[in-house]
Fold this sequence. Notes:
Helices cover 10% and strands 51% of the residues. The N and C termini lie far apart (52 Å). The chain has helices at 3-18, 38-42, 236-239, 263-268; strands at residues 70-78, 84-93, 99-115, 121-140, 144-157, 160-175, 180-194, 206-214, 220-226, 243-252, 255-262, 280-286, 292-300, 306-316.
Amino acid sequence: MRIHAAVTKVLLIIALLSGTSYSQVSSVYSFLKLDAGARASALGGSFSSSADDAYSIFYNPAAISTITKRQGKVGFNKYLLDINGGLGAYSQKLGNSGYIGAGISYLNYGSFDQYDENSVSTGTFSSNDLALLVGYSNVYKDNFHYGANLKFIYSNIGEFSSTALAADLGIQYIIPASMWNIGVSLLNVGAQLSKFGSVSEDLPIDLRAGVSKKLEHLPLRVYFEFDNLASGEEDFWNRLANISVGGEFEISKNVDLRVGYNNSERQDLKTGSSIGIAGFSAGIGFRPIENYSFDYSFNSLGNIGSIHRIDVGFDLK
Length: 317
């Protein structure tokens, strides 16, 4: 099997899933750009300013210290074809020394036909991606939160594999009186430990900046975020097209409805004259019993298909 052909297949798939054009894919670890969790994906991925959610560790490690209880989440993601993924996260207070969290994200691309250089079938091969995170966060003078993650990344394509080590950094400023949250995070800063071939590849560094606001007279929190601000675009203003917005409606004490829009995904998923509702998302959250939550999200990839995510969350005493 030629490793270049196998890598190309996987990169094409991850480009479709993450709404990134293939020409922009610079790393085999581009799966790190996929949304983590049903709530965040329903909000268009606008989540760097979110608080009190264990999955925030994937978007902004500073948010770990906004979680007052021991909290855990596990989830399942159904992507295109037979591509599936799972993730989990946990966070808790560490005495008077701050807050700690951990997360895991896994993606399985299914099975591929394998051929040699003469186009003779030699069986099948599979491909998987894995990220493991540990994070620390603390708060300064009640409003300013800061945090960092250490991240181990593993990827394999057939008999070949690659590993990397990265860090995430983040800050949040929360204003309870006016119900504003402001978040900035820098994700995936690191380097490969081992390579697929002889050439080192860059990690998908992502600089994110977002705000969210709970409206005063409506049961609605609005999210607004710029993603991928560290992209290679020569014109900085072009990076501002990477906008995601979301809205979370509190229908009742136990039910939330969510909608979102990701502009960069919509632009990158254009296929001909019609792109349908590509880039739009929706979801719902239930809290049927105390200390437990269930979340579902739907993300449209336009003519290509859609992504479904389901999560279960729990608070521990």
